[in-house]
Specification:
single chain; alpha+beta; Thrombin, subunit H; 2 domains; 6-stranded antiparallel barrel; 2 helices; 30% helix
């Protein structure tokens, strides 16, 4: 083997075996090219597997950045929402300078379908009590506190079947059959708000006392709010505005409840009824105001 190696070295140095080498390369080159073509996809697969790990890491990094940016955007939107809520509450406060209002966030609602309740994040520790009046952030009537706890409370909405509010209908200037007033929007041509109605809320137009119609606004699961016990001889029309009358002492006078939508009359019946479109959007409440300085009659000592 040593002799053969020595001879091969000598022949290689002299160039004697170059023709054989070229011949072997000529013969084996096609086979090497075929093997290279066959092995290329396999090599690409291994390279792809290596790159896939890098792409996965890059994808996770981009997802984390997107999540962080979305969290910052959500925080900014929430901040703007809170600023708007505080501005609305300030407008109500300016319209009711003698009242004390406690802002509260809505944290839950009754989902049984048998009640109309919401929960707020204020309770006895914040000076609240059962029976206190709850307003929307624009100052319209929402309901009353029904159950009170240390740190939260349940509010009965005016659409709950157990809710009954003494109200009065202020006839508007709109003719019979006028378009229905949508929640939180005063009718076109409404006069300057009365002192009892907060600035920034929908404001009923003043009417002569002799034209006021007394009734009771009751909650209903299906129709929302029904106006009952309207004397058949009284004249009301769609679009007339409904406010609390103050009778009974459980609600202060002049809180905006809503507007008349549809009137139901029965021949020979002593009373007629109507449905009311609530002024506040009771299905989308996020912030409410509790009227803490008004003590309802049911909470006062005999």
């Amino acid at each position: 083997m040593v002799a053969i190696s020595a001879v091969s070295i000598c022949l290689s140095e002299q160039g004697t075996i170059d023709p054989l080498r070229n011949l072997s390369l000529t013969v084996t080159s096609p086979a090497q090219g075929g093997l290279r073509d066959i092995a290329s996809p396999v090599s690409d697969i291994f390279a792809g597997l290596t790159d896939r790990g890098s792409l996965a890491e890059e994808n996770e990094r981009l997802k984390a950045e997107v999540e962080e940016l979305q969290a910052q955007l959500a925080e900014q939107q929430d901040t703007r929402q809170r600023i708007q809520e505080l501005e609305d509450a300030l407008g109500v406060k300016q319209g009711r300078p003698d009242d004390t209002l406690e802002a509260a966030n809505v944290i839950a609602e009754d989902t049984s379908g048998l009640k109309r309740f919401i929960a707020i994040d204020r309770g006895e520790r914040d000076g609240l009590d059962e029976g206190m009046i709850v307003l929307s952030r624009n100052g319209s009537l929402v309901g009353t506190i029904a159950q009170i706890y240390s740190d939260f409370a349940w509010v009965r909405l005016i659409t709950d079947p157990d809710s009954a509010v003494n109200v009065q209908v202020n006839p508007s200037a709109s003719p019979e059959g006028a378009p229905v007033i949508t929640p939180e929007q005063p009718p076109v041509g409404t006069a300057t708000p009365q002192p009892s109605i907060p600035t920034g809320s929908a404001t009923p137009a003043p009417a002569p006392v002799s034209n006021l119609v007394r009734a009771v606004a009751r909650g209903e699961l299906r129709r929302g709010i029904t106006l009952d016990l309207i004397p058949s001889g009284e004249v009301i029309a769609p679009g007339d505005l409904v406010v609390t009358s103050g009778h009974g002492g459980n609600y202060p006078r002049g809180l905006f409840v809503g507007s008349v939508r549809v009137i139901q009359e029965r021949p020979q019946a002593p009373f007629k009824s109507a449905t009311i479109a609530a002024a506040a959007d009771l299905s989308g409440l996020d912030t409410v105001l509790v009227l803490t300085n008004f003590i309802p009659a049911r909470l006062t000592s005999p």
